[in-house]
Amino acid sequence: SQKIEQNSEALNIQEGKTATLTCNYTNYSPAYLQWYRQDPGRGPVFLLLIRENEKEKRKERLKVTFDTTLKQSLFHITASQPADSATYLCAPQGSARQLTFGSGTQLTVLP
Amino acid sequence: NAGVTQTPKFRVLKTGQSMTLLCAQDMNHEYMYWYRQDPGMGLRLIHYSVGEGTTAKGEVPDGYNVSRLKKQNFLLGLESAAPSQTSVYFCASSPPTSTDTQYFGPGTRLTVL
């Protein structure tokens, strides 16, 4: 069955450093992968999408990579700020227009 | 635009009671989804709809029913609530593109005693 693993449940980093979150998937080959941000008590918000033929995608301080050989996506936040503290979800495309969401990594940026 | 709205925001039920959660979107999206989110388990798809009058089962459909009578509304029903259905429920919608970027509502926190 399809499985998604996000590197750890919680990640603490110091303000100004680069946060790197990992998403590994097994038993399928998604055509694209999305990353969402979720704040406590709120619904997820779309951040970035990367397709299987793209190695890297950037948006402001965010960067996503997609390695279809390793079956892995990395999500980077450079020059992190306390406002970046949230849970980040990866979502590889599943079957028939369905996204499958990982359980998320809770990022805390310490001032 | 309000985006995706959900009613109610909170609800407490007793085992065996029934209720309906309402999701509404004003973005003219074709696709709508219902998820549940439990600690450590991520979002799990309950049911989804690819258009008015259509519904399909997701990963965890048992104990739930849905209806999409109008394009802008997607209803999730619990006929006989069980404690295992205590969760946070999210509705989402997406336009008919190939990449399914989803727009989520604020969630409904349901407790079944």
Shape of chain A: globular
Structural class of chain A: mainly beta
Mean pLDDT of chain B: 94
Can you list the strand order of the major beta sheet of chain A?
A: 1-3-8-7-6
**Uncertain regions of chain A: pLDDT < 50 for 5+ in a row?**
none
Look at the helices and sheets of chain B and give the structural class: mainly beta
What is Rg of chain B? 13 Å
Largest sheet of chain A: 5 strands, antiparallel
Largest interface: A-B, 21 and 23 residues
- Strand % of chain B is over 45%
Number of helices of chain B: 0
**What's the order of the H and E elements of chain A?**
EEEEEEEEEE
Q: Percent helix among the residues of chain B?
A: under 10%
Which band does the percent of strand residues of chain A land in? over 45%
Distance between the termini of chain A: 41 Å
Give the overall silhouette of chain B.
globular
**What's the number of extended β-strand segments of chain A?**
10
- The Rg value of chain A, from CA coordinates, equals 13 Å
- Biggest sheet descriptor of chain B: 7 strands, mixed
What percentage of residues of chain A falls in helices of 4 or more residues?
under 10%
